[in-house]
Every structure is written in structure tokens, then in C-alpha cells.
Amino acid sequence: MSEPVNHGQGELAARFRRALHAETEPGPARLEFERRRLLGRLAAEAAGKRFPAALLAAGLGLATALAAAVIAVVVVRTGDPPPAAESIELSGPWRVRPGDAVSRGAAVRVPRGAGARLELADGSVLWLGPGAELVFLDGRTGAVRLDAGRLLAGVKPRPPGSELRVVAGRLEVVVRGTVFSASAEDGRSLVRLHDGRVDLCDGRGSFDLRPGFEVELSRDGAVSLRPIDEAGALGDLLIAGRTAGTNGPPVPRIPLPPVIDDDPPAPAAIEPPSPAPAPLRRTPPPRAAAPAAEPLPPAVPDETDDAGPAPSGKAAEAAAAPDDLYLRALDQARAGDLDGSRRALLDYLARFPEGRYWDRVRDILGE
Amino acid sequence: MARTGTSGDAVAAEERDLVEQARAGDREALGELFLLHAVAVRRLLTSVLGPTVDLDDLIQDVFLQVHRSLGGFRGDSRFGTWLHRVTVNTAVSHLRRARGRPPPASPEAIADLADRPGSDAWERLTGREMVRRLYRILDELTPRRRAAWTLFDIEGHSIAEVATILGVPAAVAKSRIWFARREIRKRAAGDDLLGPLLEELER
Q: What is the tally of structural domains in chain B?
């Protein structure tokens, strides 16, 4: 790694850095312990004990095979007498077959890397993402609790009094007929509404959520409302895509917004910020004609590049390649090719860990 | 990062060998790369994230990702630069997942210490207070701007280096830093501890 240049020096800055890195230096024994822990995790991955590491290491062929192997359908017969509570792990079609009943108190757990689809008696469908844990609170009205992972729901219109209730963490979603997703992770709850209308309750009050928006309830109780971005919409589509098949219900129509770049045009110089701030209108990342094999620019550019325009030639091509792959995944999803989109994203994860959309891709795949 | 008694060229050659062996699937070689770079990775994660209890796990995540992706690394760039990018991406991903987490508990109030400036304890505590206040502001920034700003103003990298690490054009790196600085200044307005610190960091 390159050494820092002479920048940001001073007594206060030095004191700040000392405080920041006061515990940065682990001793040799600690390093050795962590090295052995790393080797243990690598060995576990190599043995296929963990996902998605094993998937990434094995490449796309395994991904495709696994995706095809996890199609599972469970039919919930509303009105059936509730049997004893049960716990089902949807690890593949061998353990849960179409027609199996799931009723009040039953828990469904989806392994990491897998997906599941649950069809309710009224034709509503719940798609569960990897790692999802769902508990049926009341089989008669369809009240479920999502304890972990992500869920996409396509709910048929229901009359008042028969709404589907989905509890995701501390958010409760009351559904009369709509397409929405919910996730619960690490004390955080998130609901995205793609179509229709839902009422949201967080224990302090309730409100309507408009289509195209998402609500997040953080662990400390803060509520955020924002438009759904392309990554969130694609992630929801791919939840359904994991168990999509010719005999299954159609994947809901979820619009994919254009890619929003966090980076508005740069001002001419960092200091002083004399020009008016650049407009906040964002621009999509550039497309490349063909993906480049080398994801990194060849070397650290010279300092004199600071005031220059964007890099050109090989560096620009390398920077654009992962962008192009991400855009291709979006295009494939828009065209209905969810398998292809998922493969492109897995390809991105494996090939471009330094790509600008890497963290988004990981979130989309829910891995 | 260099080992005692070993020249820089020898270290570079050893690193190249280790990278080649790790690419070939040698996990012990990756373990050696871990020993060479773990401290630098920890330092960079600390700069971007601030003090966090998750550091050891995040460092492991960085090297697991290195293991998965080394096949795509052809050596046209330095391994250290590539590792920097993987590290920053891991940090940014962590920030996205940690949205909404409460800030760390406040340490001792700085006002109580104002009557004995200059002492070692006072300097340590003001240093910790600066860290706490600044990272509370950084928690409000987008992860990308936060990463760019910390690389430039805390780690002291040049614009070109920040751009290379983030994998973006220099103009984009500059934009992120510029907007981060503006947001930080706005949020730190009137803070008599952070004001002088920011002046020094951005100088």
C-alpha cells in the first residue's frame, strides 16, 4: 500500500490520528490467532460448509445448479384444523412437497443461498429469500411473522377483515392486495411497496405507504422514507426469480428505476469551493462496449492527474467494465431474464470486488 | 509492513511469490499475505469506519474476499493497491448494512477537562472526543463520500490515489471529497473542537 503524502498535518490532526489508531497495532500473538482463524474459515469454505463463499468459489455453474435445485412449493390450506406447530427447513424439493400443509405456529426456514415459494389458498404468493425465517401466526387469515431475511409478496385482493398481516421485525404490514417486500435483519425492518396499498404500523402509529417508496425502521427506532432504487427493486425481483418456473405463478411486475449515481459532477477544485455547487442531478455510469478482463487500472496515476479529467484508455475501460456488467444485469431483469440477471450479478461479485456497485450487488443477491 | 531486516525489493518479490501461490490455491500463502497486510488493512478500516468492535471480523472478510477474487487479479497493478480497494469496498458494504445503528457511547464530557489542558490525560481525552464527534458526523454521510473523505483527509492520499482505490475517475473522487467536506463543515459549525481539527486535516 502506498504511503500517505504530506497532507493534513498539524498538532491537532496528529492527536486525532493517535486517538483513532490507538488500538490499531495487534501484537504477534493476536495476528497469529487471526491468521489461524482465517485459515480455518478458508478450509470450511473449501469443504462447502458455508454459503455463498462456496458458491462464489465454485463459479456460475454451481450457482445455476443450486438455483434449480431449491424450487419448493408449499400450499397453505386456509380453514384446515391447525396441527401441532412444526418447523420446516426448505432445503430443497425433497423435504417439502407440493400439498404439504403449514399452519399456525409453523416456522419455515430457508437456508443461506436457497429460495422458497409459498402459495396461499387464495392464490397469493410469498417468495422467501435466502436465510429467511417465517412463522405462521394464524393460518386462517394469513398472519405471518418474518424473523429474518427477505420476503416478496404478491397478495390477491382481500376484503376488509381478511387482510394479510406481515410482521417484519417491529413493522407490521396490513395488506389488502398488493405487491410488496419486507425484510428483517439485525434489528432493522424494511418494507418496499411496488404496487397497491398497505398500512404500516410500528407500534407508535400507522400510515399509508405509496407505491414506489420504501420505509425503513432502524434498530434505534428511526423511520426513513425514500424512493425505491434500482438495487432494491432488482433484489426483490430476484427473490421471486430463485423459484420461478414454468409451472409456478408469474413473477410480479416490478418496475426497475434507472441507476442513480451518488456522484454529481465534480467542482473544478476541492479548495476553495468557489464555483456554485454542482447540481444534484445524478448521471448514470458510463457503458462500455465489452467487459475488460482486468478490473483495476494498471498503476497509481501521477499526482499531476489531480486536476485532470476522467482517466482514459485502458483505465477508463477497466473502470467501465463492472459498470457494464451491472447495467447488463438490470437490462436482463427488465427483459424478464431473471436467471441471466442473477448470473451476471454473481459474475460481478466474483470478478469485481473493487467495483463501485459491489456492495449494491451483494445486497441485491442477499448473500 | 516490511519485515525487520528485509529490504524493500525482497519484500516486494516475496509478496509477488505469495500472491502467485495464493492464486494457485495455497491457503498458507494467503495466511502469509494476511500477516504482511493485516495491520495496514486494520488501519484503513479504522480510518473509514472509526473505532468499531467488528474490526477483526471485517479484516477476515477482506481476506476471504481476496481469496475468492484473486483469480481475477492479474498483477497489472500492485497487490497493495488492489487490497486497498477490496478493503474500502468491505468498509462501504459494512456501512450500508450498519445504517441506523446507534453511535458508540459517549466518553467523558470534554467540558469537565477544560481546566487542565496540556496534560497527557487531557490530550488523550480530547483526542478521543474528537474521534467520537467526527465519526458521529461521518455516520450521516453516504458511505462513498465518507470513504473518499477519509482516504483523502485522514489517510492523506492524493486525489489520484483516492480515485485509484475507489475505482472511479479523479473528477468523481474530487466530487465526493468536495461534497463530504461541505457536509462535514456544515455539521461541525460552531464546534470549537472539530473546527480547528478540520482546518488542519483539510490543509
A: 1
